Fold this sequence. Notes:
Layout (H helix, E strand, L loop, with lengths): L13 H28 L14 H24 L11 H4 L6 H27 L14 H34 L15 H13 L12 H18 L5
Keywords: Cell membrane, Membrane, Transmembrane, Transmembrane helix
Membrane topology: Multi-pass membrane protein
Subcellular location: Cell membrane
Amino acid sequence: MTQKSAPFRPYQPFLLRILHGFTGLFLIAAILTAYWTYDTYDGRWGGIPLPPFREIEGIHGTFGLWTLLIFPAFVIYAFHRGQRRLIQPDSLSKLAQVGKPIWWYTLNRISNTLVLLALTFALFSGKMMDETWLPQGELNHAWYFAHLISWGVMVGAIALHLLINAKVGGSPFLLSMLTWQLRDKDSPTLWPAHVSQWWVQVRRGAWVGWVPPMTKMSVLEIAIWMSIAAAWILPLLH
């Protein structure tokens, strides 16, 4: 009698789960309060009527700010330790293999990248808005329209992200982002040692090799970093 093997359980790095979890939590809260803000102050394109709540714009801005604060750490992880999860140089050629597993994995990487771009657009356009516009009834500013569009794009990108991840890995893969399971080599108790080792390498000149050859992915990363920097700097110049 053969013994059945234990079902495969996907494992996600603990640091990824932390960054992904907090980013996702703040982002979902920002999306929900964004709709309530739209419903309270605008509502020109219909929707589900909610009770007017004049303070909701400030709450939405707070969740947006928290998302912006944690987003840089998530970007660093995504483009370095998690780079395999993003679009690859050969992704377009692999899209020709429709219906095969590599096709779905490629779509998954593309959807992950789209979520990063959509979130960058949403955070940047939100920072370009003035918090007095909506309370004063100024609903025709270009940046307000851009921010509305950004949240629509964000919702679509998240839906695509979840659907494709469910197709690729099923419910075990989705639940692997929510579990507290921890492998020994992934323990936070090892992080100080990793930081210490990293600092030793920096002192030995390892930073010289940190500038990689210019690729499409590095250009994309630079563009996101420039958008984050501009989101903080440009409002100060108004």
